[in-house]
Design brief:
- By secondary structure, chain A is α+β, with helices and mostly antiparallel strands.
- Chain A contains 14 helices and twelve strands.
- Chain A has helices at residues 14-33, 47-50, 79-89, 133-149, 163-170, 175-186, 190-199, 204-212, 220-225, 229-234, 236-244, 247-250, 291-294, 308-319, and strands at residues 37-38, 44-46, 63-65, 71-74, 97-106, 118-127, 155-160, 217-218, 253-256, 269-274, 283-287, 301-307.
- In chain A, the strands form two sheets. In chain A, strands 1-5-6-12-11-10-7-9-8 form a nine-stranded mixed sheet, with helices on both faces. A three-stranded antiparallel sheet of chain A has the order 2-4-3.
- In chain A, a hairpin with a 5-residue loop joins strand 3 and strand 4 (71-74).
- Chain A starts with 13 loop residues before the first helix and ends in an 8-residue tail after the last helix.
- The longest helix of chain B is centred in the last third of the chain and has 18 residues, at 208-225.
- In chain B, helix 4 packs across helix 6.
- Chain B has ten helices and eleven strands.
- By secondary structure, chain B is an alpha/beta fold.
- The two termini of chain B are 29 Å apart.
- In chain B, strands 2-3-1-4-11-5 form a six-stranded mixed sheet, with helices on both faces.
- Classes of the chains: A alpha+beta, B alpha/beta.
- Chain A binds chain B through residues 110, 112-113, 155, 157, 187-192, 215, 217-218, 254, 256, 262, 272, 274-276, 278-281, 324-327, and chain B through 5, 9-10, 44, 46, 49, 51, 63-68, 84-85, 87-88, 90-96, 196, 200-209, 212.
């Protein structure tokens, strides 16, 4: 007999479950060491509440109605629910606030390896600690937590969601073109980016800068020292973060000036976690300094989320010595 | 196996119309493609870091990280991005390689009077369109406000209007000769397609140096060869 389960979901049996648990225990121990308190929130939220985040980028997989006809969605991430918790349950608390979570989230995606519709996320949120110190703390927790799991070859790609828009406004790029350039970048399409710039009436040096900058990525020091003056000013925020990182964290960081996270609520530093054993990022995060304000408690914030299943695949891949591509 | 592949990257190559110009390109980069040319059944060439596959599989391998980079047609990328929804395939599109130029067209049978596809739309309210690119075809007709019934075929599209399966076809044409020979006329040009270099997002970060070097060399090659493959 066949009793199907919804597309993009799956059962986890004891052997896999035990491995996932040992990963989450290692993460939890690190989060606890850094004083991040674990919280749970309802899997179901009112759609109108989650819509204060970015439901366009994080499309809910499942919508339902409750008895009174209100639209409910299964949460798409934990960042927005935690913003809600802070604004309601911690309305008068002195920041900074530190939370961690292990929770299932639900997204409307094309199901594929390590990218289910029901995904188990582990992450932290640091509320009320501005850049660069808050960002540096979160990156430190991220690196230490991944190392605690036994992941060895990972790197963190660090960029800034505000960098390219800021540069475009300095170069007086018209609004419509700016939107198209950002769209090409978020689709990772450098051919389209280049074509849009070729068609534009911008002066050649501006075009060259806008074409070249998002392709710059790699070890921080050589990258920063080779930046043209105008771009270097825009990248000052990144330098400030790097200056606060300890050696074991800094050695994991590469800069990526073309990094665009798809989430609308990111305002500053953004980052992704890469491992050579996996073709997709394992997780990522960034600063969202405006989101809490949308819930009535304006506080700067930063956090990250890791896909536990992806982390598991990467760990297993490292064990087998996978390096991406041919052996 | 002797040493690492010459470019330090795994490259996915499409066995198809783009294969010959892609090989010529690798040769100009100084890669020995002799074995690639002479052995059609072999799929994996670790000594030069190449894997070969059906053209529409290239983005799949690259997206999953089974290859660092790949060469594929814009037609394949467009068709699959419509498949994946607005997010598209999670690969970097790094370079227009210029070769393999072809146009995605809407064509229908030559006729003395009205275009048969237009006539079907006018009188029956819908045109039937046979294609190997159902998503590009549906997207084009939707954007231009016409109702269509998309008939997906796997083989020669040109047969469909002649045999009465559809009034029109959406297909890729390089010279227009096959269309002409089958008495078909191009009615609309949808998009120009060329070969593209794509990269896996993680390889793009972790193998940045090897990748940028490849892009540089390909760009230089394109300038001196006028991107003619």
């Amino acid at each position: 007999m066949i009793h199907p389960i919804p597309s993009g979901t799956r059962d986890v049996l004891p052997e896999e479950s035990a491995e996932l648990r040992s990963i989450s225990e290692a993460l939890r121990a690190t989060f606890t060491d850094f004083s991040y308190g674990e919280i749970y929130t309802p899997a179901l939220e009112y759609e109108s509440v989650l819509a204060r985040g970015d439901l366009r980028a994080l499309e809910p997989a499942y919508r339902l109605f409750d008895h009174s006809g209100q639209t409910l969605v299964l949460r798409t991430d934990m960042t927005v629910p935690i913003a809600r918790v802070v604004a309601t349950r911690y309305a008068d608390s002195e920041p900074p606030l530190r939370f961690c979570y292990f929770a299932h989230c639900y997204r409307r995606v094309r199901p594929e390896r390590g990218r289910p519709r029901e995904l188990l996320q582990a992450g932290i949120e640091l509320i009320g600690s501005p850049a660069p110190a808050g960002t540096a703390e979160v990156l430190t927790v991220l690196v230490r937590a991944l190392r605690a799991c036994g992941l060895e070859r990972f790197r963190i790609g660090l960029g800034d969601a505000a960098l390219y828009p800021q540069l475009m406004s300095e170069l007086e790029v018209p609004a419509l073109l700016a939107e198209r350039l950002l769209d090409a970048l978020s689709r990772r399409n450098f051919v389209a980016l280049s074509e849009e710039l070729d068609r534009s009436t911008l002066p050649e040096p501006a075009r060259e800068l806008l074409r070249d900058l998002p392709q710059r990525r790699g070890d921080p020091q050589p990258l920063l020292s080779a930046l043209p003056a105008r771009a270097a000013a825009a990248a000052e925020g990144l330098s400030a973060i790097l200056a606060l990182l300890e050696g074991d964290v800094a050695e994991r960081v590469i800069l990526d000036l073309g990094l665009v996270r798809e989430l609308g609520y990111y305002t500053g530093a953004i980052f992704e976690v890469y491992d050579p054993a996996l073709g997709h990022p394992i997780g990522g995060g960034g600063r969202y300094d405006d989101l809490l304000g949308r819930f009535g408690r304006p506080l700067p914030a930063v956090g990250f989320a890791l896909g536990l299943e992806r982390l598991h695949i990467a760990l297993a891949g490292e064990e087998r010595g996978e390096n991406g591509g041919l052996p | 196996m002797s040493g690492p592949p010459p470019l330090g990257l795994t490259i996915a190559l499409p066995r198809g119309a783009l294969f010959a110009p892609a090989l010529a390109l690798l040769q100009r980069l100084g890669i020995d493609t002799h074995e690639l040319e002479s052995n059609e059944r072999r799929l994996i060439f670790p000594e030069i870091g190449v894997i070969t596959m059906r053209p529409s599989d290239v983005p799949t391998y690259v997206e999953a990280g089974a290859a660092d980079v790949g060469i594929t047609g814009r037609d394949v990328l467009l068709e699959q991005s419509e498949l994946a929804g607005r997010e598209g395939r999670a690969v970097y599109e790094l370079l227009d390689l210029g070769f393999g130029r072809a146009v995605m067209v809407l064509a229908s049978a030559r006729s003395e009077g009205e275009d048969p596809a237009r006539r079907a739309l006018r009188r029956l309210g819908v045109m039937r369109v046979a294609t190997k690119y159902p998503r590009i075809a549906a997207g084009h007709l939707e954007r231009t406000g016409r109702q269509a019934e998309i008939v997906e075929v796997k083989g020669s599209t040109e047969l469909a209007p002649i045999a009465g399966l559809a009034e029109a076809i959406v297909d890729l044409t390089a010279t227009g000769r096959t269309l002409q020979e089958n008495n078909l006329v191009v009615r609309e040009e949808i998009v120009v397609c060329t070969a593209r270099l794509i990269a896996n997002p993680v390889s793009h970060k972790l193998k940045a140096q090897a990748l940028d070097e490849l892009v540089q060399r390909l760009r230089k090659d394109g300038e001196s060869n006028g991107f003619q493959g």
